[in-house]
Each structure stands twice: as structure tokens, then as C-alpha cells.
């Protein structure tokens, strides 16, 4: 019997075989599950049950999942992970820009999906504004705007700090190039896709133990970057 206090995950998926696979994997790991096959039912169920997290397929019979994602993001603030057979860079970027916390392509490994779920749920936990974050020998004090590595102050430019703060406040989440450009440089810079690459490179040199093999800031090829603890 599922623990009544378990976190509930709503799966929006019309493939019964995948639903069964997810039900077994999720409930074996302590989650409560609900399933709906259409966008119409998804809106109603999400509003009524307020699940802790949504797994969303994009290929729904009555609507495009991208449109459903945008509709949900008008009021639903908990994590949404897209799990879809659509593997083009354009679809992934569109979903992330539409508000998805993460994107996993089918066929997927259940272990990876569970890890993405745990990361999204950790990110969703409320915490004090502008906390002090520790990543091994790296300490980031967002309130004081101070960064230390091995006890030494790390000198960052204002843009480098703004980029790092954005990463830390979105730990575990894939940030697209366009999102980073809007948040750090402004809407007028969304076409300057070379900016994140250059500044991420500079930031890695200052905070990573080995910038050639980064552990904190990982590259999501063709999409953007993800910041997470080792």
C-alpha cells in the first residue's frame, strides 16, 4: 500500500505501457502516482490534486504538450519534467523556455529519471532567501555577494557574479542560452549566444577545481547549462 503521506507525481501520458513502467518505478521509490492521458484531464487533475511534480509527454491525443505546458505554467508552480520521444534541439529548448524544469528523451533509463525527479524536488524546497551555499571547497554567500574557494576570496566581475547567482538559485535546472541571456544581459541580447559560452568559460576557471573537466557547471549540448553539486 502506498504511503498516504508520500509525494504525488502526476504522469500526463497516453501510452499505457509507459504508464505501467512509471507506476512500478515511482511507487517502488516511495512516490504516489496519478495518470491522465489527455491535456483536458491534465488541467483538471493538476488543479484538483496539486501534485508535487508533473511528468509530461508532449505527444497527447487532444493537444500539443508544449501548449499544455504553457497553460499549466500560468498557475502551476511546482516542477514539470518533460519526458518525450521528441529529441530535437528546438523542441527541448522550446519546452525549457515554456517553463519545464528538465527534459528527458524516450527511451529513458528509470534510474536517470528518478535522479532528475529528486533534483527537481530538492530545488522546489523553500529555503531562506539569499542563503550561503557550500560546494566542497567553494562557498557562495548570496546575501553578502561573496565567493570563496579554499578560503580565499574569488574575484568576480559583476557579470560573472550575476551569472553564478543565477546558476545557484536555479541549482539542478537546465538553463537555456536564451534564458541566461534574458536574465543576465537583458531581452535585447537573446541573440548573442556567444556570451554565455565566454562567461561560463571564465567562471569555470575561477570556481572549478579543473576547468577542463568541470564538475559544477555542466554543458547541456546545444541547449544551455546546468549547475549542481558534485
Mean pLDDT: 90
The share of residues in extended strands comes to: 15-25%
How many E-type strands? 12
Tell me what the CATH architecture of the largest domain is: 3-Layer(aba) Sandwich
Instruction: Please list the strands of the largest sheet in the order they lie side by side.
Output: 2-1-3-4-5
Number of domains: 2
The structure class reads alpha/beta
Distance between the termini: 35 Å
Sheet with the most strands?
Answer: 5 strands, parallel
Order of helices and strands: EHEHEHEHEHEEEEHEHHEE
Indicate the CATH topology of the largest domain.
Rossmann fold
Helix tally equals: 8
Enumerate the spans where pLDDT stays under 50 for 5 or more consecutive residues. Answer: none
What name goes with the CATH superfamily of the largest domain?
Response regulator
Helix content: 25-40%
Outline, from the CA principal axes? globular
Over all CA atoms, what is the radius of gyration? 19 Å
CATH class of the largest domain: Alpha Beta
Amino acid at each position: 500500500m502506498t504511503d498516504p503521506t508520500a509525494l504525488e507525481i502526476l504522469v500526463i501520458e497516453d501510452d499505457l505501457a509507459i504508464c505501467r513502467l512509471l507506476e512500478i518505478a515511482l511507487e517502488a521509490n516511495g512516490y504516489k502516482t496519478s495518470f491522465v492521458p489527455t491535456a483536458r484531464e491534465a488541467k483538471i487533475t493538476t488543479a484538483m490534486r496539486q501534485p508535487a511534480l508533473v511528468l509530461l509527454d508532449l505527444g497527447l491525443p487532444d493537444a500539443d504538450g508544449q501548449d499544455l505546458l504553457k497553460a499549466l505554467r500560468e498557475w502551476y508552480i511546482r516542477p514539470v519534467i518533460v519526458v518525450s520521444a521528441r529529441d530535437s534541439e528546438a523542441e527541448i529548448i522550446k519546452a525549457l523556455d515554456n517553463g519545464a524544469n528538465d527534459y528527458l528523451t524516450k527511451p529513458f533509463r528509470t534510474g536517470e529519471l528518478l535522479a532528475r525527479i529528486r533534483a527537481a524536488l530538492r530545488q522546489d524546497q523553500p529555503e531562506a532567501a539569499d542563503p550561503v551555499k557550500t560546494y566542497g571547497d567553494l562557498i557562495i554567500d548570496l546575501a553578502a555577494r561573496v565567493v570563496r574557494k579554499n578560503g580565499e576570496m574569488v574575484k568576480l566581475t559583476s557579470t560573472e557574479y550575476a551569472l553564478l547567482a543565477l546558476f545557484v538559485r536555479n541549482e539542478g535546472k537546465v538553463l537555456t542560452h536564451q534564458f541566461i541571456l534574458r536574465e543576465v544581459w537583458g531581452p535585447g541580447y537573446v541573440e548573442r549566444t556567444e556570451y554565455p559560452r565566454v562567461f561560463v568559460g571564465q567562471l569555470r576557471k575561477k570556481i572549478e577545481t579543473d576547468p577542463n573537466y568541470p564538475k559544477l557547471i555542466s554543458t547541456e549540448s546545444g541547449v544551455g547549462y546546468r549547475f549542481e553539486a558534485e
